[in-house]
Structures are given as C-alpha cells and as structure tokens.
User: Fold this.
Amino acid sequence: MAPQRRGAPRAPDGSTAAERRRPSSTKKDRALREVPGACLRTAGLGAGLALAALLLWSSLGTDDGVTEVLARRGELVAGRFVEVPCSEDYDGHRRFEGCTPRKCGRGVSDVVITREEAQRIRSIAEKGLSLGGSHGGASILDLHSGALSVGKHFVNLYRYFGDKIQNIFSDEDFQLYRAVRQKVQLAIAEAFGISASSLYLTKPTFFSRINSTEAQTAHDEYWHTHVDKVTYGSFDYTSLLYLSDYLEDFGGGRFVFVEEGANKTVEPRAGRVSFFTSGSENLHRVEKVRWGTRYAVTIAFTCNPDHSIADPAFT
Assistant:
C-alpha cells in the first residue's frame, strides 16, 4: 500500500505554517529589491547636486586653463613675488641702466594700499564715470588725458564739462590719487631693486569699470591676451590697483598670467596691488566679467622720461 500523504500542519488560525511564513518572506524580498532603487535615486540626486554646484561655480566666473592661484581674494597677502626670466622685448627700446628690467617677475601685495583708501579711490572713479559710460561692458576714465567713455566713443571730460568739472572732483581727490600712485611706485621699486626716482608715470594710466554688458566696439573687448610692452611701447612696469572684490562685487574678471599649460591667476580684492614687468614674460588677459561690476585702476611706469606724464591737477 502506498504510504498515505499527510496534509501540512495547520496553524492555529487555520492557515498552514508555510502560508504564514510566506507574507514575511515577501516583505523582505520587496525591501531587498527596493534598496538598489533607493541607492540609485540617492546617487542620482547627489550627481545632480554636484552638477548644479559645478554650473553655479562656472556662473560665478571661473575659467578653464587656470592651474594656480597666486593670490586668493579671501587671504591677506603681505607681499608675494615670483621671479621669471626676462623676455627680449626690452632690447628694441632705449635702455636705462638701473631701471630697464633685468630682474623680471610679478608681485602681489595687500598692504601697500588700505581698503579704506581703495574705497575713497573708487568713489573718484564712480563720480567720473557717472558722467558717461560705455554702451559696452568696459568703461574708461583717464584723469591725466581727460578721456572718458561715452556711448561708443570717448570725450575729453575737461573740455566737455569745462569749469563744471570742479563740481565733480576736488583737490582732495587728486591729492589722494597722487599719494596712492606714489605708494605703488615705491612698492614696485622695492620689489625690483631699482630707484623709485628712475620710474616715471606713463600713459595710459586709467580707471576701468567692467560689467557683463555685451561688447559694442573693440574698446569693450578687454579679455584678449596681450603684452603691455608690445601694445603700448612705453610700459616697463605695469600695476593694477583693485577697487572691488571678486565673488562679492562681481564674478569672472580674474587677472590671468598666461603660461603654456600652467596659467596663473590673481583674484581681485579691494586694495590689492598686482604689479609686473611689462614684457612678454608676463603675457596676460582678464577673464570676462559674468555678473556684477569690477573696478580697478591701471597705473603704468616707464624708465624713459620722454614718455612721462604728469599727475592730474586742476588747472
């Protein structure tokens, strides 16, 4: 006789033991299946946040090709200097012993000009540029020549406004401008081991106000790579005094020293002075300003007294 098959033992509620175990096993299986999906969703969210952060950082004004930051906006630089080999750009010009660069390089300092002085200097730029301004992204104010951006052109603000100019600027403004220029001149002379008296202010020396407005003329295209000694001829030493803060007042607009595979940048900070020899050993450009407004003043020096200009003054 074939053995009689017994039924599965019943649980007290009338269901089999196997049937009672099945629901808990199903929940466990479902939970295990849901874990990978949750991980994928979390990973996707993390990747999305990372991408958003990258896009935000890009929108703040970073630019490809920068491999080293010489001076960050958030740090206080007491004095930093990097020596580089001099180019041959100076050989085609008259040399002045004890002044024409034999030691070349670039320096940054936050202790030459105070932030309070930078704020007062910026107010001079704001007053002057309120009289005009470029239709493009870059406006210029040159207190020496009187050149002022107005629309797509320049006017001489001293001739254009005549005696009314004394209602815009004061003697104190020009005294401060001269004092700041002298401090920058002394800092450059000390860094390069030359006499300050051998340096002469040269043109163009000017305020710049840059925003993200689309360029209207070639004068608005400030971002092209160039060499000051080639562009202007008279330049031997170039300096920039920044009057606003990177990532607080504007995005983009960093100053970039262009080197093969190793571009280096200076992040503007109000009161920061960046200076360098003007030859092609310091090929450079400015990043496009992405948002906000960037203020600075370019102060250039020559060793040739024939190319010197006077400080601005009321006449």
User: Anything to note?
Assistant: The chain has five helices and 16 strands. Confidence is low (pLDDT under 50) at residues 1-28, 47-61.
